[in-house]
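Student: I would love a firmer grasp of how sequence relates to backbone shape in proteins. I am handing you a single protein, as its sequence and its fold in token form. I am told such tokens are a discrete way to write the fold. I hope you can help me see how the letters and the tokens relate. Take your time, and here it is.
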Amino acid sequence: MVAAALAVLAVVPLTLPALAVSLAMLGLGLGVFVPANNAMIMAAMPARTSGTGGSLVTLARGLGTALGVALPTLALHLAVQARHPAAGPHLAMLVLLLVATATMLMTTLLATPTSTGSNDDRAATETTTPR
């Protein structure tokens, strides 16, 4: 849904209705994805490393926010320098779409199925009875 909204913003004329619908789709897509993604990441971490996991999630969110501001700003600036300021907003959305697509592909390729928690955590919580 996020990629679809960015694709629409990259190609359609930026009228108020198009912006409203696209930004609503973008917000809905992010609102559904981010909490589920964070919960999945934290569930995959052993309990003893949950602080580190939470910090890494926050670091990734901060980097995404910084790049999400810097790259469209660069695209807008480059469009003005190329004497095509009207193309700037579309170029900015295209840059965001390319980054989102590349990130999705990289994540999909690098993801490996894991079970929740490690054997060490399970062993520490199991009780043993003497024989």
